[in-house]
UniProtKB/TrEMBL annotation:
Keywords: DNA-binding, Phosphoprotein. This is Response regulator. It holds the Pfam family Response_reg. InterPro entries: CheY-like_superfamily, Sig_transdc_resp-reg_C-effctor, Sig_transdc_resp-reg_receiver, WalR-like, WH-like_DNA-bd_sf. The modification 4-aspartylphosphate is found at D41. Residues 1-104 form the Response regulatory domain.
Amino acid sequence: MIEGVASWLTGDSRIEVVHTGDNVDKLAADDQLQPDVVLLDLSLHGRMDLDNVAKLADTGQRVVVYSQFTGHGLILRTLESGAREFVAKHEGREHLVKAVVAVAADQPYVGPVMAGALISDGGADRPKLSEQERIALLLWFQSSSKASVARKMQVSPHTVDMYIRRARQKYEKAGRSAYSKSELLARAIEDNLVAPEELNGDTP
């Protein structure tokens, strides 16, 4: 399995596999080994271990979870534990490569299985965002900087920052704090403010 996945990844010129293994101890302990992305199977040595996600995320690693187990509750728990993205094994090479490349660039990529889990999670209170706040979030999720969002919206970077800050404040008031970009993205998809397919294309 490891050799097959490594072959998939190295088949893309943007990706170099720098380490493979069947446990996370070396990655968590070795300050010299700092890959751009860690691709992590949830089941190692026949045991499901979500603590590995949190252990790696706490050290600053960008984690993409790759698993055959695709229950919506499990996917949401992996994201809450700090994973940037979740890719199901049956989604194949295309989604896996796109997720790894996106996460390495601090960009979102939401595959079909992860999107289904996020959209199904509708139990919490949903804050109301203005259309400008929603557009600012979407453009920010699509890009790497608030300056590029400002250019597209024809407003100042300060205004973009205000829109994003307001959205965060509204989620905090609703009891669903979103401190990171990936957390805010998850909230926006959960609440149907952003559609997963919008993340991979231009905003109308």
